[in-house]
Amino acid sequence: MLKIGAVELDVPFVQAALSGYSDLAMRRLARRFGAPYALNEVVLDRLVLQNGRKTRRKLAVAADDHPVGGQLMGSNPEDFAPAAVMLAQAGYDVIDINFGCPVKKVLGRCRGGFLLSQPATALEIVRRVYDAVGSIRPVTVKMRRGMDDGADSERNFFEILDGAFEIGVSAITVHGRTVEQRYIGPSRWAFLTRVKQHAGDRTILGSGDLFTAADCVRMIEETGVDGVTIARGCIGNPWIFRDCRALWAGEGAPVPPAIGEQRDAIAAHFADARSVHGESLAPRLMRKFGVKYSELHPAARAVRDAFLAVESADDFLAVLDAWYDPQRLWAHEPNGSVSRDLIAAGAAM
């Protein structure tokens, strides 16, 4: 069992906060396939405080969306505490602080991963959030292993890690890449081993290069971290949570989802997206998910192109009808490609 403060999870596999992705529709689907806990996409503290209609919709917590974490990002310590209070009032079970985003625009505005270079400011943010909500909600932190591979960067990392635990945070997620790396090159799992050994019995979650259930279980076994947060590896692949549960229980990994299973999951995701975002916006938002779902299809490139052309709900449903008919034979050719006849038949439907 993984514990994040008072939140108890029966398996140590978490859906990460994914900017532009982990909305209510995605979180619901992840839960259906076994995710015990999920985080909403990151939101700026100042947008939470403005409390606009669009932000309220993005932050809405449904009755079937628990436990759920709300992740905050910003640069001004004074804005974090009231924003954290508002997330707690909105129903979030955990308040997470983002010190890991490596996007250049974010760094240029002194947010996210930039704060790993500013230990005093980072810890002031943690203290303000903990003082504001720590008595009623677990507070957690997301970090990367530093700004770069320099010695100063590593010292800053451990200063923030130790200081945050001393303040009272319940868990810290550590991504094995530096901010400078962004998503290039391997995640350094050996660093996660060092961090967990340093942290002792305090809760550390690992992140980075988790694209299969085997990766997730192996990270826990190799590094000793208490759990993992699955990010890019679960976009278009909610089955990863089902597979993680199976491997964790010693059952072996289930076979990849058949075309009919894929259709059912994508259709459920789209139905929730329409409910959450409306008829006009949902089809366009689902295009990026369709691109990821297509990677599991034997005709991946053709299916990807079909999803990218979607403009309306009817278009999206037509892609499912054309490419996800469980009665059709979507067989790979020996070279890993798909028969041109099959692609032509699917495109013509």
- Portion of residues in beta strands equals 5-15%
Q: Could you name the CATH topology of the largest domain?
A: TIM Barrel
The shape, in one word, is globular
Q: Work out the count of structural domains.
A: 2
Q: Could you describe the largest sheet, including whether it forms a barrel?
A: 9 strands, parallel
Helix content: 40-55%
Order of helix and strand elements from N to C terminus? EEEHEEHHEHEHHEHEHEHEHHHHHH
Mean pLDDT: 91
CA-atom Rg in angstroms? 21 Å
Please provide the count of β strands. Answer: 11
Report the span from N to C terminus: 48 Å
Which consecutive residue ranges, at least 5 long each, have pLDDT under 50?
Answer: 333-349
Number of helices: 15
- Name given to the CATH architecture of the largest domain: Alpha-Beta Barrel
State the fourth-level CATH superfamily of the largest domain.
Aldolase class I
The first-level CATH class of the largest domain is given as Alpha Beta
Structural category is: alpha/beta
Question: Would you spell out the secondary-structure blueprint of this structure?
Answer:
Blueprint: E1 2-4, E2 7-9, E3 13-15, H1 24-32, E4 38-39, E5 43-44, H2 45-50, H3 53-59, E6 68-73, H4 77-90, E7 94-99, H5 104-108, H6 119-133, E8 139-144, H7 151-167, E9 171-175, H8 189-199, E10 203-207, H9 213-223, E11 227-230, H10 239-248, H11 259-277, H12 281-293, H13 300-308, H14 313-323, H15 340-348
Parallel strand pairs: 3-11, 4-6, 5-6, 6-7, 7-8, 8-9, 9-10, 10-11
Antiparallel strand pairs: 1-2
